[in-house]
Amino acid sequence: MADYYEILGVAKDASSEEIKKAYRALARKLHPDVNPSPEAAEEFKLVTNAYELLSDPAQRQNYDLGGSGSASGFGGGFPGGQFGFGDIFEAFFGGGQASGPRSRASRGEDSLVNLDLTLKDVMFGVKKTLNLRTAVLCPTCSGSGAAPGSSPVTCSVCKGAGHTRQQVRSMLGTMTTTQPCRACSGFGTIIEDHCETCMGQGRVRGERDLDVDIPAGIQNGMRIRLSGEGEVGTGGGPAGDIYLEMRVLEDEIFARDGDDLVATLDVSAIDTMLGTSVKLEGIDGDIEIEVKPGAQSGDEIVFKSRGLGKLHGNSRGSLRIIIQAVTPAKLSSDDKAALEKIRKGRKDPAPKFAKNGQGFFEKLRHRFAAR
After folding, report:
1. Given a cut of 80, is residue 65 above it in pLDDT?
2. What pLDDT digit, counting tens, does each position of 320-363 carry?
3. Rounded CA gap, 148 and 155, in Å?
4. In 3-state terms, what secondary structure has residue 189?
5. DSSP labels, 51-100
6. Could you report the per-residue pLDDT of 289-326, keeping only the tens digit for each?
7. How many CB atoms sit inside 10 A of residue 27's CB?
């Protein structure tokens, strides 16, 4: 794998300004508009890829730790210098009619961004502000790639056509081939005075904030497409899209079951027998919970419209509280004596096996499976 520090001719502890300065110096010599040779074009690809990676703090740190050496910033390769399959086919075999000069503007890359949400965010929907570090339009040249006050000039080799024709004699007769102009890389024009800010790319690294409305009821793994909010393309080309992937975080108390919220309420054995009431804090406010006398483990207390908002709807799911009887592990002598007196007075049946499928955990499993 190529050493990007060596490609730019800087030390591994070089500052961001030193890296930028080294890239500018090399770009002035190797840019396809200045040096049309194939060797320079290949070297410019490497230089640009190295700069894009090392100018991004996160990618540089990953690279320094032995990570991938593939820069993801501006998509790799030299801006506007990529040739598609059709260009390669024409370069070798010619074409019937040339399509004219290629545009310097190309569409920006799409981006995938993970967004963490809480159950409260999902319950009501939420507005989030994303801080994006991406490619933005160059403020100096507005995407043209040329220095202020200058503009690209017509290529003297292809006369602005973006391609050249060549006649080749063969056993089949004289054939005319068409290929992209090497002098201007197929653009039909040459930028003689590059913008110092973006070095002819028409875009720079920048930060911007983006407000996004997340609807209620969104689920984990769902994606929202933000059209035209991604990185700006080279030459002032249109921006790509951003895909927001949702990650709904687990809550300490409440679990999600579709549009319902589920929580377990620990209740002492005495309170399950005699009944009790309690006020607890929920996601959307306090919850008044009444445990009726004789409550059993696995019983549910349901609160309608206290769950999560439904996606593309105005209603909400339910809040389901599942009772779990808690038996104390230790009792005082007085407690034991009192309970022993109650047991003798009640004459409850002796312990026995429950019928298959009638145990607490079996009931709970079937209750969830039925939903």
Report:
1. no
2. 999 999 998 888 999 889 888 888 888 788 888 777 765 555 55
3. 20
4. strand
5. HHHHTSHHHHHHHHTT------SS-SS-TT----HHHHHHHHH--SS---
6. 999 999 999 999 999 999 999 998 889 999 999 999 99
7. 19
Quote the mean pLDDT of the chain.
Answer: 84
Q: Are 364 and 322 in contact (CB under 8 A)?
A: yes
Burial of 337: CB neighbours in 10 Å, binned 0-12, 13-18, 19+: exposed
What 3-state DSSP class applies to 367? helix
- Here the tokens at position 318 are 């339910």
Cβ proximity of 275 and 133 under 8 Å: no
Q: Residue 301 — φ and ψ, nearest 5°?
A: -115, 120
d(CA 160, CA 173) in angstroms, rounded, equals 29
Q: Dihedral angle at the C-alpha atoms of 352, 353, 354, 360, nearest 10 degrees?
A: 100
Reading the block at residue 72, the tokens are 């993801």
69-88 tens-digit pLDDT: 554 444 333 333 333 444 43
CA distance 371 to 362: 15
Kindly tell me the burial class for residue 4, based on how many C-beta atoms sit within 10 Å of its own C-beta (0-12, 13-18, 19 or more): buried
pTM exceeds 0.85 for this model: no
pLDDT digits (tens, 9 = 90+) for 152-211: 999 999 999 988 887 766 555 666 778 888 888 899 999 989 999 998 899 999 999 999
* 230, containing H or E segment: none
CA distance 313 to 216: 9
Whole-angstrom distance, CA of residue 36 vs CA of residue 54: 26
Instruction: Report the amino acid identity of residue 340.
Output: E
Distance in Å from the first CA to the final CA of the chain: 54
